[in-house]
Prior knowledge:
Blueprint: H1 14-24, H2 36-41, H3 43-49, H4 55-65, H5 77-91, H6 95-99, H7 102-107
Helix pairs in contact: 4-5
Amino acid sequence: xxxxxxxxxxxxxxxxxxxxxxxxxxxxxxxxxxxxxxxxxxxxxxxxxxxxxxxxxxxxxxxxxxxxxxxxxxxxxxxxxxxxxxxxxxxxxxxxxxxxxxxxxxxxxxxxxxxxxxx
Length: 119
């Protein structure tokens, strides 16, 4: 059933505005994994940029592995040790738990918003 707004014009449903904004900003629904090497290799840099790992772990791993974190040289013990340190540091962090902490939400100015979209 259509709802009518001012002057008898048809009102656009709220959910349609959300879909329009989503599409206008250029989001695509595709497989997030496009290339194993590129996608997995970028995790170290991402973890460093968002401060999930220390500068020391990042720099040491970057230098010893020469930018190849997915298929490291099995004879490069320093690289393998650094990747293990990275894995240990990264697995200690659970993003779901981190993002749901009240202090984190307050620091990021997350507001509690609840709305229901009826389709």
